[in-house]
Amino acid sequence: MAEIMPFQMVHYGPEYSNALNSLITPPYDVISSEQQDSFYKSHPFNVIRLVLGKQFSSDTPEDNRYTRASNTLKKWMLDKVLVRKPKPGFTLYQMDFKEPDGNWKRIDGLVGLLKAEDYGVGKVLPHEKTYSGPKKDQLELLRACRANFTPIHAMFHDPEGRVLKLYEGLLNTEPEQEVKDSDDIIHRTWSLCDDSAVHGIVEFLREKSLFIADGHHRYETSLAYCREMEVQNPSTTDQSHKYVMSYFTSMSHPGLTVLPAHRMLRDLKDFNKDELLRRMSDCFEIHDLDYDISDLESASKRLSSKLHEFAEVGGHFGMLFNGEKRFRLLSLKDPEIFSSFLDTNIPESLVNLDVTIFRELILGHSFGLDREGSENHIEYTPSAADALKKALLGEIQVSFILNPTRVDQMRKAAELGQKLPHKSTYFYPKISSGLVLNVF
Predict the structure, then answer these.
(1) Which of these, 22, 54, 21, lies nearest to 36 by C-alpha position?
(2) Burial category of 287 from C-beta neighbours within 10 Å (exposed 0-12, middle 13-18, buried 19 and up)
(3) Distances from the Cα of 190 to the Cαs of 50, 120, 390, 437, in angstroms?
(4) Span 370-414, pLDDT tens digits
(5) Other residues' Cβ atoms within 10 Å of the Cβ of residue 376
(6) Cα–Cα distance between 302 and 246 in angstroms, integer?
(7) 3-state SS string over 128-166?
(8) Cis omega (within 30 of 0) on the bond before 134?
(9) CA–CA distance from 282 to each of 235, 363, 412 (Å)?
(10) pTM for the complete prediction?
């Protein structure tokens, strides 16, 4: 069973309610160095000092971004910059956001605690592979602060909306926190502490499998920390280290949105466009697309729309080389032709996914990059316009535009115990850091 718990939520004190747009940040792993500087300057109490503190050449084991985050957290709690709710509960978290096509959508879910256990043991299922670097960084922060600053995102199957019925009345009341972030996403929170509703949510989710949508590194970091604590304090009665703050949403929620994670390749040696096209032609039909590249926003939408025609088929990609003024459309040839280029260990359920085809046939066969080494040469973005712009400006060597991985594909892989390639999904929008914290 998946073990869910309410908790004593920590948030900014009420006197900061009008300054929240200067206090919150996106999740740490999507913050650029320029954004980090901007958040530092925006407010002395911006949560960036906790989630992604600055590093300096003078850092020591006793004075570094992890120890500074710990000291800052303690001071903010002591000075009531951050305050703790007296009664355990869940945070009801809602977001209004605009899709790339311009339509507004809304999604809501609950923030609570999830017991960190080995995948499958507590019905917690991953869908993506992780890397050691981010986990090492987050483990150092967790050791120093004993806090979760950003929830992971977990999804559950609830086609009848039974969890929604337990909290929907609260959505009609005034939110405790409301803020519009720098991406024009509106965030609202309420505290759900009603004993009956809390009990109903805990019992319902106890019988459900939970699929990690976002935050695999943070979940695995929490599990590693739990194992450390069990070794260091085997007789402790404190169980707080066994849980990770999580944002729970229904897979059936109409606001659930998955954007594509477009790929941009850079710093490749011996980059030969003609040779790459020849190798790609082993597996793909390659067609030129006559779009007006001077209107990049419109062109990117046309390209994405063209790819969407093949969303149910798979194996189609948009491509733009550095310095070129034309797009190309890659269309996968007969599966009998390309199957010889695939790793025979790839499970059948993953073979036809765009992210698998891209990794095996484009990165592997065409570019000669292995799975681990390729990550040093890839940047990701959910914005097709940004990916194409970087190619035009020469900031990267080639951009590939992908269709998003569907939720049903992700769920099937997770249920079969299979992991998709890194950055196979980009769930949008991202829950912020700063509106709710778990300090234990």
Answers:
(1) 54
(2) exposed
(3) 23, 31, 40, 14
(4) 766 677 899 999 889 999 999 999 999 999 999 999 888 887 777
(5) 9
(6) 36
(7) ECCCHHHHHHHHHHHHHHCEECCCEEEEECCCCCHHHHH
(8) no
(9) 61, 13, 30
(10) 0.85
